[in-house]
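This section describes the prediction task in plain terms. A model, or a person checking by hand, is given the sequence of a single protein chain and must write out its three-dimensional structure as a string of tokens. No templates, partner chains or ligands are provided. The sample shown here is typical of the held-out split.
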Amino acid sequence: SHNVCQDRTGDDNLQSMIVGTVMRKIKSRTWKKQRYFKLQEDCMTIWYKSKKAGNAHSTFSVNDVETVREGHQSEVLLSIADEFPPDRCFTLVFRGRRGNLDLVADSADEAQSWIKGMKKLIENLENMGESEKLDQWICEWFKKADKNNDGRMNFPEIRVLLKMMNVDMNEHHAHRLFMTADKSQTGTLEDDEFVLFYKMLTQREDVLRVFQDYSGDGQKLSLRDLEEFLRDEQLEEVDRVQQLAMELIERYEPSDTGTKMLKAMSIDGFLMYLASAEGSIFHPRQQSLYQDMTQPLNHYFISSSHNTYLMEDQLRGHSSVEGYIRALKRGCRCVEVDCWDGPNGEPIVYHGHTFTSKILFKDVVIALRNYAFKVSEYPVILSTENHCGVEQQRVMAQHLNTILGDKLLKSTLDGKIPVSFPSPEELKGKILLKGKKIGGLEESLNGPVEPEDSLTGEVSDEDEAADIDEDSLHSNSLRRMAKKRSTLQFPSNGSIKFIQFNSRSFPQKSKQRLSKELSDCVVYCKSVHFSSFKHSRIHSKFYEISSFTESKARKHLREAGAEFVHHNARQLTRVYPSGLRTDSSNFNPQEMWNTGTQIVALNFQTAGVEMDLNDGLFSQNGRCGYVLKPDFMRMSERSFDPEVPINREGYRPLSLCIQVISGQQLPKVNIKESSVVDPFVRVEIHGVPLDQAKQETRYIDNNGFNPVWYDTLRFTIHAPELALVRFVVEDYDKASRNDFVGQYTLPFSCIQQGYRHIHLLSKDGTSIPPASLFVHVRITNLVEGGRR
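The expected answer:
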């Protein structure tokens, strides 16, 4: 890993990190412990331990760190702000769902050394090319296996390493490779010999086979060979093929081969191309912002979070401003707050009637101001569930106005009475409040200022806890839940809260007083109670938005799918998880997107297939959090029922054929040194009910390193515009549940055909390089009944 460290000699920050520093690790106001931190020689690993002799040490990779925040930029550090000045404090933020590391150095200079040094290391990593990353990865393994740290590896060490790397290789074959790589004939491999050993080990027979199919002489792809491959296999646009072939040679052919001079491509260049973004299954053009952003807001699916303040479960979980920062950094564009009257006149945010911890509304608004537009400039909707009295509602309005300033949308864009939503483009950089409103937009725009005494108004009070559907209350599962929940080990007064929780399940249509100041902050997203689709069609204004629990939404979707789609062509709808999901689990968002529902709110803090689908849908269009709905869901004159996609105008079913060829460097699931995975691949289609399907390859015994399948899976897709494709790798276990190895989800419309690599993601949606699958994809028209 020479490349990351080559400039460290001249870099004082890195030098002092390598020497090491004692800093305080802070977990709370009371938990502050000294730890010795140092950067390992590889400039890739941070090592730390407590000062007590004999205590175990911990390490983490610089790769896992997403960013460094200076000063008091986390709740933990803010809570000790009076004790340690900001110039000695910093926070390391990790990728995925791992908690932050809050540190206090002994001096501002030491803090600066670590802050600047870490930023430098992160930047170096971001600038590394693919082949450097691979070398880096190989060197990390070398270090893990070089047990006696002499910078050499003998054959027994190599065998342990192969097990760690998920390779179960016949000893004879491994020994032959070892001898070939041992150029210096010392019976050990130094690091550059090990890189050679590794590359021989990972030779890609599958890619070589394709290369030789198209190569005229079996040695290289001439310009013409490569053009033919791009045209016939990769189905690149015919008029672009010549230009593209030249560019690929320029970009991926190693310059130390004579092939580049000949305007041709060697197997190495070919492999580099196939492993690059251009060789990936996701079309690069659709990864950037490519959709029309000038349509009305309700014509987009919007990445949305439920109970954003929770970091874990709904009963006793930890509430945190960090929840908002994480969701916003993942491209989320609709976040939620539950506000309650707090002490000292300050509204608080938490999950009412439970034991989740509490945070200040004010702090949420500050986080919103600081992070709303870091990854996307398109509007953020702040969905409020307001349980505050009028006094603290005024405080909420004041915080929104003073903290957000002109980021808060306070009136319609042109001051006129609109007939439909403005577009995400027109609302760039704006935060929209969704909540109750006194009267409508019309009154607030043209009505005279009301007399002083009407500074509050009455609105009907629905709240989410009341929405645990009355019908499901009578179901046994709920009785079981109730039994279970009343016996939870709550404090002595807890059971009372629980009874209260249950009695709220029968909605009392009460009235709530609303302060005019807070009401005025609501412009395009007025929360209203839903009566029926017919009622909405006749009476509703476009800016009125209703929220459904998942079960209500399912009922509407079954009884009136086409009407639901129509309703969403004119108004916004929000669907959120059932109140019974106290474990913060999620429902499948796909069935809600099938109805054109824009705001499908998920628990972002909970990993699983539902969040994979959300990440998959929103990984296109520059990850900006908005995805344009298919045109048949935006036109009021077109009819689409997700239950019968065959009836729609322009119905053209497609056939998807995927050959799963091989896997590369799949991560180990079991920590036990001796176990190696038995991987298989499942391909799932998520879309309209007719398209929901999954198929699996067989499993391969004991090989996570380079399993080969050549299994072909076929699917028919009736509504391709709505379909997502999810690739899952699992470790086959006949005795118990299969273990998850990795997954990748993308919109069907973003697939590139031909020979493609799929770069797998972990449970958390973060990348696990260099784990990948190699597949061949073909999409063809399916000539069937139905209009074409």
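For orientation: The two ends are 57 Å apart (CA to CA).
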